[in-house]
Amino acid sequence: MSQRVMIDLEMPADLAQFKLPLAVDQRLQYLLDRQDQGETLTLEERKEAEGLVDLAELLSLLQVRAQRVAQSTAH
Q1: Domain boundaries defined on the chain
Q2: Residue 43: strand, helix, or coil
Q3: CA–CA dist 67, 75 (Å, integer)
Q4: Is residue 18 a contact partner of residue 62, using CB atoms and an 8 Å limit?
Q5: From first to last of its 75 residues, what are the pLDDT tens digits of the chain?
Q6: Which of 33, 29, 24 is nearest to 55 (CA)?
Q7: Which of 1, 22, 42, 60 has the least C-beta neighbours within 10 A?
């Protein structure tokens, strides 16, 4: 069962801040590239990749929602 949680966030002026830091994104791409090339990731690497994908998706969702809020307050 899913739950809804309300969080008050101060939105940064630069919405691009809602992304993985470069080194973290590079690590994720490295793991995904290895997997795409048919390499078997260790259990730890798979968990790491899954966690980073989840984090990237959350940050993308925050960016989209922040853009919607910014657009609605601009009108």
Answers
A1: 42-75
A2: helix
A3: 13
A4: yes
A5: 778 877 776 766 666 677 899 999 999 999 999 999 999 999 999 999 999 999 999 999 888 887 887 788 776
A6: 24
A7: 1
pTM over 0.85: no
Q: Would you give the distance in Å from CA 28 to the centre of its chain?
A: 11
- Take residue 37 and report the two structure tokens written for it: 């090339």
User: 38 in the Ramachandran plot: left (φ > 0), alpha (ψ -120 to 50) or beta?
Assistant: left
How far apart are the C-alpha atoms of 4 and 56, rounded to whole Å? 20
* Amino acid letter, 57: E
Secondary structure tally for the chain: helices H, strands E:
2, 0
Give the DSSP letter of residue 37.
T
Selection from 47, 53, 10 nearest residue 29 by Cα: 53
